[in-house]
Write a structure and sequence with these properties.
Blueprint lengths: L9 H12 L6 H18 L2 H11 L5 H28 L2 H17 L6 H11 L3 H17 L3 H17 L3 H17 L3 H11 L11 H15 L2 H9 L2 H4 L8 H9 L3 H16 L8 H17 L4 E3 H8 L3 H13 L5 E4 L4 E4 L4 H28 L1
Antiparallel strand pairs: 1-3, 2-3
Helix pairs in contact: 1-2, 3-4, 4-5, 5-6, 6-7, 7-8, 7-9, 8-9, 9-10, 10-11, 12-14, 14-15, 15-16, 17-18
C-alpha cells in the first residue's frame, strides 16, 4: 500500500477559525477576515457537513442553494468511492482495497464529517500492513479526534501509536507524534510535559498538517515560561536559534518571555495583557486562559520578592506598572491562597518576604506525626487492657 499522503494544514485551521469566530475577545474586523477565510476553506473542500454545523454553532443563516451544491458533490464522490471499494473487494488485491478505504476515510475527514470519519480510519487501519502506513493512519485519526475535541479518543490513540513505535518506526513519524502528544498535553493543562515535548521537537518540526511553525513556537514559549527554571529558559528558549527566527512574528511573545527573564515586569505585564486575548481565542488554551494569567503573575511576584527581605508597596507597584491599591489586593489574594510567601504591612506600606524555613517545617511535621502516633498507641493500649 502507498503511504498516507501528508495533508495540508487547512483541516485543523478550519477548526481554529470556527472557534475564534465564537469568541467575544476577537475584534469584529478580525472576525470578518476570519469568516471570509473559513468560507473559502469550506468552499475549496466542499465541507457540507461542517458548513451546516458551523452555521448552527455561530448562528449564521444557511445558504441552502450552496449547501445543496456541496451535498450533491459529496454524494457523487462518496458513491464513486463506494463503487471503487466494492470493485476492489471483488477483483483487486489487498493493497488496492487499502488504498480505496483510505481514500474514503480521507474524504470524510476533508468534508468535516464527524460520525463516520473515525470508523472509516479504523476500517482502513484493520486492512493496513506495515508500521509506517499504520502510524500515518493513527496520526490522521489523531487530527480528527483533536478536530472534534474527543479527549479520551486522543489519549487512547496516542498510546496505540506509542505501542507501534516500540516495534519500530522512523524518526520523522516519531517526532510528529511527539508534537501531537505535546499539543494534547497542553490542552489538558500539563504544561511541563507539553514544554518538554515541544522543545524536543523544535529542531526537527515537520507536523505542519497539525499547526503552523509560528503557532508551534508560540506554544513552546508559553508552556516553557511556566514549566522551565529561569536558567533553562535562557538556554532553551530565549537563545534558541529556531525560536529567534520567528518569535518576532508573533506579537507580544518576545516581550513576554524577555520581560520575565530580564525582570522587566512592566514589559511582562503589558505583554501578558496583550497576549491574553489571543490565548482566549485559541482552541487548545482557551479553557486555561485564566489559569495561565494567574500563574504568570504569581511567578513574576515570586521572582521579584526573592530579591528582597522587604520592599515598599509603592516601589513594587512601580516596578510592575500598577497602582499600590491594585497590587495590595492582588498580593492579599495570593497570600490568602498560600501562593506567595510574604506579608503586607498596610500601615507602613511594606511587603515583607517570609521565606519558609524547610528544616523547621520538617521538625514541626515530625512532632505532629509523633503526637498522632502516641495517641493511637494509647487508644490501642486501652483496648488491649480491656
Amino acid at each position: 500500500m502507498a503511504e498516507t499522503k501528508v495533508l495540508s494544514g487547512d483541516y485543523m485551521e478550519t477548526a481554529q477559525l470556527r472557534f475564534a469566530l465564537s469568541c467575544a475577545q476577537v475584534a469584529d474586523a478580525d472576525k470578518a477576515l476570519m469568516k471570509e477565510k473559513l468560507l473559502a476553506h469550506i468552499k475549496k473542500h466542499e465541507m457540507a457537513p461542517f458548513y451546516k454545523s458551523t452555521c448552527e454553532m455561530l448562528g449564521w443563516p444557511v445558504d441552502q442553494e450552496w449547501l445543496a451544491v456541496m451535498e450533491a458533490a459529496n454524494k457523487v464522490e462518496l458513491d464513486a468511492l463506494g463503487d471503487k471499494i466494492a470493485n476492489d473487494e471483488q477483483n483487486e488485491g489487498e493493497s488496492e482495497l487499502c488504498a480505496a478505504l483510505l481514500a474514503r476515510a480521507e474524504f470524510y475527514m476533508r468534508i468535516g464529517e464527524r460520525e463516520n470519519t473515525i470508523a472509516a480510519f479504523e476500517e482502513a487501519y484493520a486492512k493496513t500492513v506495515g508500521l509506517g502506513p499504520k502510524l500515518d493512519l493513527l496520526l490522521s485519526k489523531l487530527r480528527v479526534c483533536l478536530f472534534v475535541e474527543d479527549v479520551k479518543a486522543v489519549a487512547a490513540t496516542i498510546e496505540r501509536a506509542k505501542g507501534l513505535l516500540e516495534e519500530g518506526g522512523d524518526w520523522e513519524r516519531r517526532n510528529r507524534l511527539k508534537v501531537y502528544e505535546a499539543v494534547f498535553m497542553m490542552s489538558i493543562r500539563d504544561f511541563k510535559r507539553a514544554s518538554a515535548g515541544l522543545l524536543d521537537s523544535i529542531a526537527t518540526f515537520t507536523a505542519t498538517e497539525l499547526l503552523s511553525y509560528n503557532s508551534f513556537v508560540m506554544y513552546t514559549v508559553l508552556t516553557s515560561l511556566l514549566a522551565l527554571p529561569r536558567a533553562e529558559l535562557k538556554s532553551k528558549v530565549i537563545d534558541a536559534p529556531e525560536i529567534l527566527q520567528v518569535i518576532g512574528e508573533v506579537p507580544n511573545l518576545s516581550e513576554l518571555v524577555n520581560g520575565m527573564y530580564y525582570c522587566d515586569y512592566k514589559k511582562l505585564l503589558r505583554a501578558l495583557v496583550n497576549i491574553a486575548d489571543e490565548i482566549q481565542a485559541d482552541r487548545y488554551l482557551h479553557q486555561h486562559a485564566r489559569y495561565y494569567w494567574r500563574e504568570v503573575r504569581v511567578l513574576a511576584y515570586t521572582q521579584f520578592l526573592e530579591s528582597y527581605r522587604s520592599v515598599s508597596l509603592s516601589s513594587m507597584a512601580d516596578s510592575f506598572g500598577v497602582s499600590s491599591d491594585f497590587l495590595d489586593k492582588e498580593l492579599a489574594g495570593f497570600i490568602a491562597a498560600d501562593r506567595l510567601c510574604c506579608k503586607i504591612d498596610k500601615v507602613n506600606g511594606v511587603v515583607s518576604s517570609t521565606r519558609p524555613d524547610t528544616k523547621n517545617a520538617q521538625y514541626q511535621a515530625t512532632i505532629k506525626q509523633g503526637d498522632l502516633l502516641l495517641n493511637r498507641l494509647q487508644k490501642l493500649s486501652r483496648v488491649i487492657n480491656i
